[in-house]
Amino acid sequence: MTRQSPGPDPQKNVTPEGDLQVSGRRRNLSAAQVAAMEEKIRKIEFAISLVLRVGVILSVSVIAVGLGVMFYHHGDYASITGHTSYKTLTSRTTPFPHSLGQLRHSLVHGDGRGIVVLGVFLLILTPILRVAVGVVSFFYEKDIPMALVTLFVLFVLIASFFLAGL
Amino acid sequence: MTPLDFVVSLALISVAAGVLGSLVGLGGGVVIVPVLTIFYGVNIRLAIGASIVSVIATSSGAAAAYVRERMTNLRAGMFLEVATTTGALSGAYLATLLPERFLFAFFGVVLAYSSVITYRKRHEDQVLAVSNDRIANYFNLHGSYYDEAEGREITYKVSGTKLGLVLMYIAGLVSALLGIGSGALKVPAMDAAMHLPMKVSTATSNFMIGVTAAASAGVYFIRGQIDPIIAAPVAAGVLLGATFGARVLGRITSRTIRLLFVGVLVVISLEMLQKGLFP
Q1: With an 8 Å Cβ cutoff, are B130 and A82 in contact?
Q2: A22 and B131: CB-CB below 8 Å?
Q3: Which of A75, A102, A107, B189 is deepest in the core (most CB within 10 A)?
Q4: What letter does residue B70 receive in the DSSP assignment?
Q5: Tens of pLDDT along A92-142?
């Protein structure tokens, strides 16, 4: 990982405008094309940051509701000093939903911990949804190389869930 | 300690983990795992499950802000995710083939080496003005960002994409195998191998670690490693901390971020070496 200096003038900080005669560039882009591409990236950035914010706010709200429900149902958990130790909830043998079937079951019964798991699930889905939005955005902006790259990432992510047995 | 005390105290610690994680581009597992295992006496398998949740929370919380502020190199991040997700997927099934002790020792050495590399270039703020990298040029992975600490727009070129891809594959592998350390390899891969500016490297690493972690989250969930009562305060606290950290990054100098990163990296590599050599 040594620092190379592939360019003729690596000391220079700012790219000269219209720097197009670089070797190795296979897609020749004019200054106008680069500007158009940057405008597209702005739009994609907005869509992606929106997805992330909505996902984060939604999941944290569901988690908070789940915690609230759990403490409401188990008054002894909610005291500051008491005999109930947190270790009953955090040991290796503590039961909690860890498959979609169990999750559905505990949600039907209004179990607070089930709601928390649902919130955590939404949190896990947020980056995956973010990749999906990337795929759609890149196709929409006709940036086919990047669209295919992100589509591959989305495919691997979905495959990971199927291979895990969900 | 009652469940309420546990949830509140862990949430507060998680806020700190989120701030640190969002600044240096790591998932906060470096704080969460030792706190859970040593301070709270939680089983390591559940602690690693919580670490995965913390990584996703840091990533989404920080990236929402970084992407909006154009600190993240979106194209480079999404391009490199090809390697991290493939690495994470293969890692989940290699776990049984490779002895964990060997993995910890190996990655301990790798991270110690990258902390030396990062420390040696702590004064360097040069960015590339030209790049001969065919892949980077084809996908147009170059970028620019506004540096608040320097008060100017910085335009940079990306190179060393092949080495970057290899390192990213390893980062995905580590994330799935050990549950920690994926950001620790991503930042040097971008900063040292691909010549992205340091702050862009940590912001882009933040952007990517969520996807890497999501690729192995399914396995952790099915194995019952994601305990809701641990995950809830970790997720909430880390999200809050990461959102705050992301607001601060722009104003801190690259040198400070590098030194902070080196500090964290040394801690992680010592932790891994200890697990590998003297378990």
Answers
A1: no
A2: yes
A3: B189
A4: T
A5: 777 788 788 888 888 888 888 899 999 999 999 999 999 999 999 889 888
Across the interface, of A13, A63, A89, the residue whose CB is closest to B127 is A13
* Tokens linked to B209: 């670690």
ipTM of the complex: 0.87
Please give the sequence-ordered ranges of beta strands (E in DSSP) within B24-151, or none if there are none.
143-147
Please report which helix (H) or strand (E) contains residue B232, including its range: helix B228-248
Contacts of A26 in chain B (CB under 8 A): 134, 137-138
Helix then strand then coil, in percent of chain A rounded to 5, is 65, 0, 35
Domain range for B199: 3-277
- Using CA atoms, how far apart are residues B81 and B171, in angstroms rounded to an integer? 10
Q: Which amino acid is at A117?
A: V
Question: Residue B63 is nearest to which of A52, A63, A64, comparing CB atoms?
Answer: A52
Query: Between helices B100-120 and B254-277, what is the axis angle to 10°?
Result: 160
Please give the distance of CA B80 from its chain centroid, rounded to a whole number: 14
B38-44 contacts, C-beta under 8 A, 24 or more apart: B40/A86, B40/A90, B40/B6, B40/B10, B41/A87, B42/A90, B42/B230, B43/A90, B43/A91, B43/A92
Quote the minimal CA–CA distance from A68 to chain B in Å. Answer: 11
| Count of beta carbons in the 10 Å neighbourhood of residue A31 | 11
Number of structural domains (chain B) is 1
Sorted by sequence, the CB contacts under 8 Å of residue B227 that are 6+ apart come out as: A89, A90, A94, A96, B46, B49, B50
More confidently predicted of A163 and B169: B169
**CA distances (Å), origin A80, targets A27, A34, A66, A85:** 64, 59, 19, 11
B124, B129, B230 ranked by CB distance to A7: nearest: B129
Q: Do B188 and A1 touch (CB under 8 A)?
A: yes
* Side-chain half-sphere CA neighbours of A166 within 13 A: 23
Encoded amino acid at B142, one letter = H
* Residue among B251, B148, B188 nearest B25 (CA): B188
